[in-house]
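Risk register update: the risk that structure generation would not scale has been downgraded. Supporting records follow, first protein first.
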Amino acid sequence: MVEAFPPAPSAREDVVFQIDYPGCIHDHLSCSRKLLILLQFFYLCCTMFYVSKKIRIAASHHLEVDYPTKCARPHGHNYEIEVFCKSKDLDVNGMVVDFKTIKERVTDRLDHRNLNEVLPFNPTAENLARWICEQIPDCYKVTVKETEDNTATYEL
């Protein structure tokens, strides 16, 4: 049991709450005790480890769209990608995910490549962000910056 959370100073000991626990009989607890239980529950259930990794790749592509645009012609970008991962628990190595894993799964597959040749979809920044998120364990968000002014984000 975590004892790091003292009861709130304004809690009144004379106020009693009735709490239902599944499978248990009713238990009467004071306001400060209930607050302590809620804080411990929040701590145990809501703590999270977060990591992010920035990656830069150079790649070419062309877009397949239903309107005329110069982006339908082959061109390239120096992409700036940021991958965000989270986990309630760390792996056996004390990590959410190894930064090397993130880099390898993105850089090795996409850097200095024609994205139309290595990806099975129209390589828009939005589709690229979703695909990257699907490749990384515990990833919940990816930002793909195609140019200084154009950024796409995919978030679970």
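Supporting record for the second protein:
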Amino acid sequence: MGEEVNESTRDGSRQLMDLILALAIVLLAVAILRKWAAGRRPATWSHPALHGKQLVYSEKTFRSKRHGIIAKIDRGYLAGDTIELLEYKTRDRHRVYRSDLIELSAQRVAVEDETGRCVDDAAYVLTERNRDGTRQLHTVTLLSREALLGIKQRHEALLSGRESPRLAASPALCLSCAYLSECGGASERV
């Protein structure tokens, strides 16, 4: 009879441990999902610069048929009669890159050509830092349509071989380039 009680106690202990383990797994899964969802909240995030503006586009693709530009915007806000663009970036530092300006400027051309609406010369880049989730809103001035189309033409000329690439203006960029061994850029800088 003593053995039956011990066996019954062991079974009860195992069931309790299994229940605690299952509960711990569920709580861990909920915590992971919450952390993941917290990093994907630009639609609910707000900033004084956006107050009073109506969100009219979210994750929408636009096309400029006459310029052959396709661009997906993160957010577009109606401010008076114009659209203001917001690009959401997750990165290690709160910093705006030239590629952000090019991307937003391409978005402007695509939105204006498809909708006929005017897009503001000023736009926003919302950066979220990877390590701590802090956010910072940067106001940027978009490239002119002519400057953007010049970049597009250069890109096409590079791809077709009509033009040769130049070294990056920054030696650090050149040294971190994936094509460094192919172009020999580092040896040309020495």
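Residues 1-38 form one domain. On this basis the risk owner (M.S.) recommends closing the item.
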